[in-house]
Design a protein that fits this description.
Layout: H1 10-25, H2 35-44, H3 55-64, H4 75-78, H5 82-87, H6 90-95
Helix pairs in contact: 1-3
């Protein structure tokens, strides 16, 4: 979006990666004091992970924040990611909805 290109449902995966980072770190992943520097980091996908973040969390976020939309981890695979599996109880997993491909409108 920053680059002005069209996007599809894969942008939701990017957004999920941003939210995961913010929830675990407490700040946005690309934030800089100046907006143009923030945009540059977004365009380069310049992610800086703090040391306290687990390897699994870093891996998941990195797979969600891939520059090419088609390279991002699909939603179905997301639920199978080891970091997610490790944090979900069987009760929660049994309540998860099944995901079906929905025809999306072009933005």
């Amino acid at each position: 979006m920053v680059e002005g290109r069209s996007h599809d449902e894969h942008v939701d995966l990017w957004t999920l990666g941003i939210l995961c980072y913010e929830f675990l770190v407490g700040s946005p992943p690309f934030e800089e004091e100046k907006q143009d520097l923030t945009y540059r980091r977004i365009c380069k996908v310049d992610i800086r992970f703090p040391a306290h973040l687990s390897v699994g969390a870093k891996d998941l976020i990195a797979k969600l924040l891939r520059p090419k939309a088609e390279d991002r981890i699909p939603l179905k695979k997301l639920l199978e990611h080891p970091w997610i599996v490790m944090h979900l109880t069987e009760e929660v997993r049994s309540r998860l909805p099944s995901f079906q491909k929905v025809k999306s409108e072009k933005a």
